[in-house]
Amino acid sequence: MEKYSTWRDNGTGISPFLPITNTPLNNNDIGLMKKLLIFLKAFGKAIVLIPFLLIYQVLPFTFILKLIFQILTRLKLNVMVEGVKRSKIDINLHYPQKGQIYFVNYTTPLDFLFLEYLRTDSNDKYMVLISYSKDEFLQINNWWTFCLFTLVTAGVLSKEVLENNGFKKLRVDKTFFKIIKDKIVFIFPEGTTSNGKTVLPLRMDIKNFEKHCTVVVNTINIKILPSYLTIPLPYGDNTNKYWGRLLITDQVTVKIKITPNIKNLDNVRMYMNNDDKYKLVGEELNIESKEKFIKAYKGKI
């Protein structure tokens, strides 16, 4: 869209904040009868899910949550590890380990849930952090809080919202690395979502982080298909629209790539972008730029 060209990267041509809105129900290439079938199938899935959702309210176990999501989307998960053949992947060796940090790209309210599939021991302690400033993280304690935080704010939030919702903040210093030493730590360093076509400039100060860092750093790239399930812009109070999109989706495919033991943290963003430096947008398309885009954007989300 030409009127939003200010927020298109000159080098790559990527507009990372522009929502992808071509769902099956508004696709002109799909006939009316097929759209009706999609709607009826979505309604049927909703009916089937109701008892499982009620059970989850009483017994909020992760395996029930995964079952709900499997019914909802027929999730197909594909995990790769850089430098390791698929047949040689050992989940106890190559999946996230305690005492290590994993930088993750941020595109959907479901990212927390996808990371749950990488935990090999449900008893392992873990932390999920979202970059809030150059040297501060917000700690998100569960998948539902992460989901609502992402849907409502997409990582763009005022100090008033932060204070009123009681999010815990952690500062990057020597104490931070003592706190995390016995935990799996997932960090979303962009601090806000994109549409999955790139990795945004990091909100955190990676140089300061590297100066204090005493643990192994890895990256995780998550790519979700269909891409209309990414949410580069906040839904605000209209969060039901996202659940509707999940219901009309026949199958969700998620590709996860783990890149272990990053030696040079200057390259973190590239590895988060599936090792593709040529599809990284410029530093000017940061969270401040996104705030301006949100005010200017008048299209669909």
What does this structure look like?
By secondary structure, the chain is α/β, with parallel strands linked by helices. The protein has one domain (2-274). Helices cover 34% and strands 17% of the residues. The chain has 11 helices and 8 strands. It has an 8-stranded mixed beta sheet. Strand 3 (126-133) and strand 4 form a beta hairpin. Helix 1 runs antiparallel to helix 2 (62-73). The longest helix is centred in the N-terminal third of the chain and has 27 residues, at 32-58. The radius of gyration is 19 Å and the shape is globular. The mean pLDDT is 92.
The Cα radius of gyration reads 19 Å
Number of domains: 1
* Poorly predicted regions: none
What's the main sheet like?
8 strands, mixed
- Mean pLDDT across residues: 92
* Backbone structural class: alpha/beta
Estimated helix fraction? 25-40%
Instruction: Please give the count of helices.
Output: 11
DSSP strand content = 15-25%
Number of strands: 8
Spatial strand order of the main sheet: 1-8-7-2-6-3-4-5
Along the chain, the helix and strand elements come as HHEHEHEEHHEHEHEHEHH
Set down the secondary structure blueprint.
Layout: H1 32-58, H2 62-73, E1 76-81, H3 91-94, E2 100-104, H4 111-116, E3 126-133, E4 136-140, H5 143-153, H6 159-164, E5 168-171, H7 174-179, E6 184-188, H8 206-212, E7 216-225, H9 240-247, E8 253-259, H10 268-272, H11 287-296
Parallel strand pairs: 1-8, 2-6, 2-7, 3-6
Antiparallel strand pairs: 3-4, 4-5, 7-8
What brief labels describe this structure?
11 helices; 301 residues; alpha/beta; 8 strands; eight-stranded mixed beta sheet
